[in-house]
């Protein structure tokens, strides 16, 4: 039995599906009201990661896959990077120790580092440090932008390109990403359970191509046979509105998100594909799953 936190999310659902396909039993942490977001029939632990009796409820599991994380804070609702990255990871690690679970597989993010500029990456690094110092056998993944069925970035971008002849681009659009298909990510988390070479290691995880945002838009348009005119919005204008509107839920950006976007998201260490028996999926090929 594998215990999965964050299993109702985009990546989590794919990981749960991959576990089930390989015959693993799965137990998912599910917040009340989010049951419908879980697309698979599994045993559920209802509540959040801070349940006082969580350890007792996951006894007998052989590993934890910890996926809880956010990309944006809503402090008034108690949704912060500190709580959902650092505190949640600490709670998961403590529950694992009390339940006698020795294997811990952790979702981090590409760009995570000690001297990070964004609060998102700073708190991800704090969480990674907790995992490394826990005494558990860990594997940490740092994926670039993850895309695939039900994702919140490429799918949305594809929908806009399908219906609109123009697309606003922040700045020059030359900042790079290395999109990785969710199928690769899901299998990575599952295979880590069986690969001793993955133990106590950190893996950066991206697709086979580092692509500028402009190129990503062009590839999507080409795959869906659409013509698109890119309108580049000056950075000073984006900064102006972001500073003033980022606290409103309707506005799609925060200053933290803008920092991460402009610094790029490219893999520097390619050892992942040396350890995991997976073939990297080209972005144009992966997009065909969205059609």
UniProtKB/TrEMBL annotation:
Domain NAD-dependent epimerase/dehydratase: 2-206
Pfam families xref list: Epimerase (PF01370)
Any one GO molecular-function label of the UniProt entry: protein-containing complex binding
Protein name from the UniProt record: NAD-dependent epimerase/dehydratase family protein
Organism: Desulfofervidus auxilii
């Amino acid at each position: 039995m594998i215990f999965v936190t964050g299993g109702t999310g985009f990546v989590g659902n794919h990981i749960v599906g991959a576990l089930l396909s390989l015959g693993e039993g799965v137990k998912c942490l599910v917040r009340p009201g989010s049951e419908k977001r879980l697309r698979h029939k599994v045993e559920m632990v209802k509540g959040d990661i801070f349940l006082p009796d969580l350890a007792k409820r996951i006894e007998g599991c052989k590993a934890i896959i910890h996926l809880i994380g956010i990309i944006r804070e809503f402090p008034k609702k108690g949704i912060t990077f500190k709580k959902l990255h650092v505190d949640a990871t600490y709670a998961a690690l403590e529950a694992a120790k009390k339940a006698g679970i020795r294997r811990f597989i952790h979702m981090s993010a590409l760009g995570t580092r000690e001297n990070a500029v964004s609060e998102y990456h700073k708190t991800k690094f704090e969480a990674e440090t907790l995992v490394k110092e826990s005494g558990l056998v860990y594997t940490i993944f740092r994926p670039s932008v993850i895309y695939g069925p039900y994702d919140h970035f490429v799918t949305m971008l594809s929908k806009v390109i399908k219906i609109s002849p123009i697309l606003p681009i922040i700045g020059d659009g030359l900042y790079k990403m290395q999109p990785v298909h969710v199928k690769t990510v899901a299998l990575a988390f599952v295979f880590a359970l069986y690969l001793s070479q993955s133990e106590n290691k950190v893996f950066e995880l991206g697709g086979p191509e580092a692509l500028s945002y402009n190129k990503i838009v062009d590839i999507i348009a080409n795959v869906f046979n659409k013509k698109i005119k890119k309108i580049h919005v000056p950075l000073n204008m984006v900064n102006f509105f972001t500073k003033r509107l980022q606290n409103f839920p309707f506005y799609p950006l925060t200053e933290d998100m803008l920092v991460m976007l402009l610094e790029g998201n490219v893999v520097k260490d390619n050892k992942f594909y040396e350890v995991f028996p997976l073939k990297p999926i080209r972005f144009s090929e992966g997009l065909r799953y969205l059609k």
